[in-house]
Amino acid sequence: MPRKGQHLKHRKIEAIKPPGPPRHETHDALARNRLVRYMEDHFEWMLVTGYSADTVRARRVSIRKFIGWCDERGLDDPREVTRPMLERYQRYLFYYRKPEGKDCGAPLTISMQYQYLAPLKTWFKWLSRQHHILANPAADLDLPKLPKHLPRSVPTVQEVEAILSEAEPDSAKGLRDRAMLETLYATGLRRMELPGVSIYDIDLNRGVLWVRHGKGNRERVVPLGDRAMAWLDKYLIESRPQLLADDTSALFLTDYGEPVQPHYVADKVKRYMQFAGVNKTGSTHLLRHACATHMLEGGADIRYIQEMLGHANLQTTEIYTHVSIDKLIAVHGATHPSRLTRHRDNKNPVTGPSLDEVSGNAAEALLDAIADEDEAEATGVAADAPKAARR
């Protein structure tokens, strides 16, 4: 009998991957605009100086939107762009309404406005340094202030276990899904990092996994844990050989034997969340939050969690001290004068971080950090660069 809120699974019939539609040459309406050439030169500089391809891909969308706006107004020379024009473009984004889809008529979120504007500052700064323009019109452009949100829906240990157990390992695909979910929860890997893991990046004898292509191209080593090791070992022996269709070293493969992609991982996690009746916002990143929060509640030092999650700054990791609300409720109930009963002879006082450890400047810093962690895929703005380089 299904649990309350649980969705019943329907197995799909085995099928051969259908051929994709024929590719046709698409005409780029902006190709004739000279700003495109400056944009491509800027992206080449970014790749040469160490920016990741994901950052370049995200910025391309943002800068092309601005070039499209300029093209409609007959602008094709960066020397013609002034600060009042950029401020006019900023107002255009503020009053813009989505023309179609389920959010038809909705305005752009503050994060999306930031995504479209922030790359322009870096672009015009580069144009100025390369002497393509005399002065940087975006130097003093005020960007919208990003909203600061704490994670509101961290799943409990019981909910995570329910999600993991929904992947039934009685088939090659189910075993792959279980090993993938266990790996995500055990290591806290990002959605973009798991597809880059190869079979040569795991060492089951030592129980570690190498992240070769982490955020900002930073490498790190993370522990797997006994349970994830056991499922990975079973997957490598029984499931992966059945899924393998081509010569690839990718650890996790799709039903067609191809390396998994980030959207594939996210869809799988969301699907099993629905099966388990866990109706919370997010998918892969939710398991990352759960990994960090549950380790913190179990007594792990925050500096070890920082190393495991691949955070360059400890302040980014400290966000999880604010997520652990259950402990705060216990402390409040045991110590606040307004409680209904007072246990003077409490032999088991609630322990936890002191107020000095979770107050002061840390609160503001943590809220700033969550914008980089949770909005990284939405903004894509210099996620792998220092904050000074983003201004």
Distance between the termini: 56 Å
Number of strands: 3
Instruction: Report the uncertain regions.
Output: 10-15, 342-371, 381-391
Major beta sheet, specifics?
3 strands, antiparallel
The number of domains: 2
Helical content stands at 40-55%
- Name of the CATH first level of the largest domain: Mainly Alpha
CATH architecture of the largest domain: Orthogonal Bundle
| CATH fourth-tier homologous superfamily of the largest domain | Intergrase catalytic core
Tally of individual helices: 16
Structural class: mainly alpha
Biggest sheet, strands in spatial order? 1-2-3
Compute the CA-based radius of gyration: 24 Å
* Average pLDDT reading: 78
Approximately how much beta-strand content do the residues carry? under 5%
Shape descriptor reads globular
- Strand/helix succession: HHHHHHEEEHHHHHHHHHH
Briefly characterize the structure.
With 391 residues, this protein is an all-alpha fold. It has helices spanning 35-48, 53-72, 83-95, 110-129, 157-165, 172-187, 226-243, 262-275, 284-297, 302-309, 314-317, 319-323, 325-335, 361-374, 376-379, 387-390, and strands at residues 202-203, 208-211, 220-223. The radius of gyration is 24 Å and the shape is globular.
